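INFO  loader      accepted 1 record
INFO  loader      residues=615
INFO  predictor   begin
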Amino acid sequence: MDIGIAAKDTEIDTITGLDSGADDYIIKPFAVMELGARIRSLFRRADKSEKQSSDNIQMSDLFININTREVMQNQKLINLTYKEKDWLTKLTLSAAENSKHESDVKLLSNAAGGNRITIITPNGTVIADSEINPLEMENHAEREEVKYAKINSVTISTRNSSTTGQDFMYASIITEDGNILRLAHEYSGLFQNLIAQIPAVLTAIIITFILSLFFAFKFTKAITKPLENMVDALTAHEYEKFEEYNSPYYEIDKMMKTLQKLLQKINDSNKKLQSEQGKVETILESMAEGFVFVDNKMNILLCNNSARNFFTADSEIKLDNIYNLTRSQNIINTLQSVIEKEQSAVFDTKLKNNIIANIYISPSKITENELGAIILIIDITAQKQLEQQKRDFFSNASHELKTPITSIIGFSEMLNKEMVQSEKEKMVIMHRIENEAKRMSELINDILTISKLESNTNDADIAEFDFKNVIEEAVAAISPVINNKTVEINTDLDNILFTANKRQIYELCVNLIENAVKYNKPNGKVDISLKTKDDNIILTVKDTGIGIPLEYQPRIFERFYRVDYGRDKKIGGTGLGLSIVKHIVSIYNGKISLQSKKNNGTAITVELPISQSYN
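INFO  predictor   done
INFO  writer      dumping tokens
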């Protein structure tokens, strides 16, 4: 069975639908009750045409004659008791009836345009359904369309199906056999009936939208044009152009002029701020001291390059937090304490590369309610070294003076108490006292020389002289030492005029040559060279002596420093000779270098600019 459903209602359309195979034809929109009546009509016609013979039942290869109660399978008679035949007949009739119902709902569903058809008994048992197996369906006795179903009257209900989970409109009616025939149609509410109107509604919406856009564009363009011009001028920082833009609206003109004045003030303030910021950045970057500004969460707000250098932080690394700059717990803990207690702190600490720094941390307000801190890092390595050198100097000077003084006092007491009777022994003691006194005098003279060099008071004695003559005078002055050591002196000297303090250059030459002789081997050699190169005087004193081990060479120009203290005491000297040489070279902006190897001699080269400026 098939019911044609269409939106066309002309006579030719109806004829075409019926000729195409439909058992009936209905025009949309249609009433549900009309559809139910047409389905019942088709159902009655199908029931009459497909009703089985009341005398015989046949299912597959099973044949039953109800009147004779004969049962045959595959055309063979089966012997059954009367009771067995009766039950088989009832079961076969029930199965045949159910099979008929299943066939009916399929036909009715097709006739109803694919809508779901269900047959339900009066007690709510589903015996047939066009889409779902009845055995899987629950009892429908409490369904509204079943509970209130009537004969010759269609009951309508709308609800969500617990079986399929979809919204349906249900139409039900009680058929002649007492069962309930139900039709289910997917239902989406009120808007389902408006589908036919959608094209017209959409067309109206589109036209209204286009017209609204057109008029809105025209209206807003008149308002926004001066605002766009103002934004362009703001972007280009051309504040004076605001006056060129006029709007037909007084309010916008007034707003633009007010904004112009405000922005001009902001621009002036911004320029001043940028200028001040540039000054601050210039000051910070020119500072030798490290400067770091942090907030109370240790986030870095400002940090100059000197601070990065102190903590060896790469310039490309972004310093978000103090931990990116340093991991020193001493600095971090002190910083936290300063912010919490709002009290400044000062301490010295050792940084990388053997730098000794003075760290000053002071609390500083960021805003009215937020507190941060400023960290100032000052390199005091040179100061600490100088202090250590002074301590070492006084300690060494005291020690060096104490030894000869002790000797002189001891020998004097021996003579005063007449503990020595022999005249020969007395002469030896007197000679020892004389040597210790000379040694003490040399030490004091060297200390005074260094003090004078450090005070830089040599300008009054500046004069021009021949450098070669000064070297020859120095060699002659230490000839007794040369003879005692049996050392050969070789010279290669050019006549070079030099303007300086002659006494200082003499001291320089004496100390270099005397050291080369004293620390030489017996029958050794000392080569002295004086040349010029690139407007510089090059003085080289080279010996074949005992040499200086590599590990001692960095400290060889320090005051009182001796590689082998015991050996130096025997050789003599104050330990200040090379320190004096270094001071003199520094005064004349020169350079001094050392090349030495243990047991292979030493070569010291002094380079002095001929046209030097004095420090």
